[in-house]
Specification:
CATH superfamily of the largest domain: Metallo-dependent phosphatases
Keywords: Hydrolase, Manganese, Metal-binding
CATH class of the largest domain: Alpha Beta
Number of domains: 2
EC number: 3.1.3.16
Family: Belongs to the PPP phosphatase family.
Number of helices: 16
Distance between the termini: 76 Å
CATH architecture of the largest domain: 4-Layer Sandwich
Structural class: alpha/beta
Enzyme class: hydrolase
Organism: Symbiodinium necroappetens
Length: about 475
C-alpha cells in the first residue's frame, strides 16, 4: 500500500495517471495489433543476433528502423518480419516502454514531483563506430571555430563591402580545414549528423539564462555574421556567453553552406550556451525554391552533394521552435499566431517534423510560429487588433497588439522577440505592441532593403530582477 503522502498526491494530480495525462494531451497510443504486425500484415519477431566477430570489433553498420528511421545498433534487440526482413526498432515494435519521467518523493518536505529522467541514469552502449563519429564531429566543430576566430578580425580590417561582393576565396574549405571538396563533404557530414544528435536530445522549447544575445535572420550572409561576432562578441567568450539564433540561417545569401556549418559547429561545441531556433527557411521545400539546395550541390559535386543536402534537411527537422530567455522573454522566428496557446504546448511537440507535417491542422501553432506576422501599431488600416488573414499562406495569420499582450499575460512573459521580416531602410529592430514585441533582423542590406543589421543583448539590469534589452546595430552600407 502506498504511503499517505503519495496517495494524497495521486488524488490531486492527474499527471500521476499516465493514461489520463496522455488522453488530456491528445496522445493516441498506437494499436498493439499494429505494433505487433509488419506492414505486410505478418507478425513481427524479436531479433538480437550478434555474429561472433562483431563481439570483438563492434564496428558493423547500423540498421535503420522502417518506422521512425532511427538507428538500430549491432546486436540491439529489435523486430523483423520473417517474410519482408524489414527491421523495426524496440520502441516502434510490440515492446516494453520505459517512461522518461519518474515520481520523486521527498519525505522530509512531503513534496512529490514528476521529473524527467536525467541522461546520467540512461546508460547507452558506445560502439567503436559511434565513438569515431563523435570524435569526427568534435574535430570538425573545433576546426570551424578555430578558423572563425581568425576570420572575424580579418574581415573587420578589410574594406566594408556588401556580402555578395566579398572576395573571400574558398571559405568553405578553409573553415573545414579541407584540401578538396570530397574531404570537406566528409567533415560536413560528420558535423551535421553530430549536431542533429545534440538537437534531438533537447526539447522543442529550450531555455537559456541571461546575459544572452538574440540574432535575427542571417540568410547566408556570413560576412555580416563575422562582423557582428567581432563587434559585439564571439559566442563562447565573455562578451557573448550565451546566444540564440532565431531562424532563417540559409537561402538567398552567398555563403549559405558556410553559415549553416558555423552555427552547427557552435551548437556542437556549446550545446547549453548556443541555441538554434527553426525558421520558415529551415525547410526542404523552401530550400529547393530559394537556393540552399542549389549551392550545396555546387559546393559538393556528385553524390556527396546529395548526401550533404539530405543530412541538412534531416537535421533541420529536429530544430526547436522557440527559446525562453531569462524566464521572461520568448524568442521565436515568426510570431504567436492567434496567441491561444501555452508554452507547454510547444514543450510537448515531438520531432522530427517535415514540411507536410507542419501544415497538418494539429500543427497550426507551429506553422504560425514560423510564418505569422504582427500588425504594426501605426498601420494605415483600421484593423490593428485581433487576428487577421495573412498573404503568406492560408494557415498563417497576422496578429494585433492585444493578442501579443494577452499571450504574454497568460504565459507569464514580458516580451516576445521575433525576426522573419526585413524593413526598407530599417534599423534592424523594431519595438512594437506597447513594448511587448521586438523584431530583430541581422542580415544587412538584405534583398535591396538598405537595412541595418542588429542583435539584441538581454541581461539583468540590477538586483531588482528586471531584464534589459539593448539593440546592438551594424550600419548598412547603403547609409554609409
Amino acid at each position: 500500500m502506498a504511503c499517505k503522502i503519495y496517495e494524497d498526491v495521486l488524488e490531486d494530480e492527474v499527471d500521476w495517471d499516465e493514461a489520463t495525462r496522455r488522453v488530456e494531451e491528445g496522445v493516441k497510443p498506437p494499436s498493439s495489433n499494429h505494433r505487433a504486425l509488419c506492414e505486410c500484415g505478418r507478425p513481427l519477431h524479436r531479433y538480437a543476433r550478434l555474429p561472433t566477430y562483431q563481439t570483438f570489433l563492434m564496428c558493423s553498420p547500423t540498421k535503420e528502423c522502417s518506422r521512425c528511421e532511427g538507428d538500430i545498433l549491432a546486436g540491439e534487440m529489435h523486430f523483423v518480419c520473417a517474410h519482408c526482413h524489414i527491421p523495426v526498432c524496440k520502441d516502434c515494435g510490440p515492446s516494453v516502454y520505459i517512461h522518461r519521467e519518474y515520481d520523486y518523493l521527498d519525505y522530509e518536505t512531503g513534496e512529490v514531483q514528476v521529473q524527467e529522467v536525467p541522461k546520467r541514469v540512461i546508460h547507452e552502449r558506445r560502439t567503436r563506430s559511434a565513438l569515431e563519429a563523435e570524435a569526427a564531429c568534435t574535430k570538425a566543430a573545433r576546426q570551424v571555430y578555430s578558423e572563425l576566430q581568425k576570420l572575424a578580425p580579418e574581415v573587420a580590417q578589410e574594406e566594408d563591402v556588401e556580402h555578395n561582393r566579398w572576395d573571400s576565396g574558398n571559405v568553405l574549405l578553409r573553415l573545414l580545414g579541407a584540401e578538396s571538396e570530397a574531404e570537406a563533404a566528409q567533415s560536413a557530414l560528420a558535423l551535421i549528423d553530430g549536431c542533429q544528435h545534440v538537437l534531438a536530445a533537447q526539447p522543442s522549447l529550450t531555455e537559456v539564462e541571461v546575459p544572452c544575445k538574440i540574432f535575427g535572420d542571417i540568410h547566408g550572409q556570413l560576412r555580416d555574421l563575422l562582423l557582428l561576432f567581432h563587434s559585439f562578441g564571439m559566442p563562447g567568450t565573455q562578451d557573448c556567453p550565451r546566444c540564440v539564433f532565431n531562424g532563417d540561417f540559409v537561402d538567398r545569401g552567398k555563403h549559405q553552406v558556410e553559415t549553416a556549418l558555423v552555427l552547427f559547429a557552435l551548437k556542437v561545441l556549446f550545446p547549453t550556451q548556443v541555441f538554434l531556433n527553426r525558421g520558415n527557411h529551415e525547410d526542404s521545400t523552401m530550400n529547393e525554391k530559394y537556393g540552399f539546395q542549389k549551392v550545396i550541390l555546387q559546393s559538393f559535386p556528385g553524390e556527396a552533394g546529395h548526401r550533404v543536402y539530405a543530412a541538412f534537411s534531416r537535421a533541420f527537422q529536429y530544430l526547436p521552435f522557440a527559446c525562453l530567455v531569462g524566464g521572461k522573454v520568448l524568442a521565436l522566428h515568426g510570431g504567436i499566431g492567434d496567441g491561444k496557446w501555452k508554452l507547454d504546448d510547444v514543450r510537448k511537440v515531438q520531432r522530427p517534423l517535415n514540411h507536410n507535417q507542419l501544415q497538418a491542422p494539429e500543427n497550426r501553432v507551429l506553422w504560425n510560429i514560423l510564418w505569422s506576422d504582427p500588425i504594426e501599431d501605426d498601420c494605415a488600416v483600421s484593423k490593428v487588433f485581433g487576428v487577421h488573414a495573412s498573404a503568406r499562406s492560408k494557415i498563417a495569420v497576422r496578429f494585433g497588439w492585444n493578442v501579443t499582450q494577452d499571450f504574454c499575460v497568460r504565459n507569464g512573459l514580458d516580451l516576445v522577440v521575433r525576426s522573419h521580416q526585413s524593413k526598407k531602410w530599417g534599423l534592424g529592430f523594431d519595438v512594437m505592441h506597447n513594448e511587448s514585441l521586438v523584431r530583430v533582423f541581422s542580415a544587412r542590406d538584405y534583398e535591396g532593403n538598405h537595412n541595418d543589421g542588429a542583435v539584441l543583448q538581454v541581461e539583468n539590469e540590477d538586483d531588482s530582477g528586471h531584464l534589459g534589452v539593448r539593440p546592438q546595430v551594424l550600419r548598412s552600407l547603403s547609409s554609409a
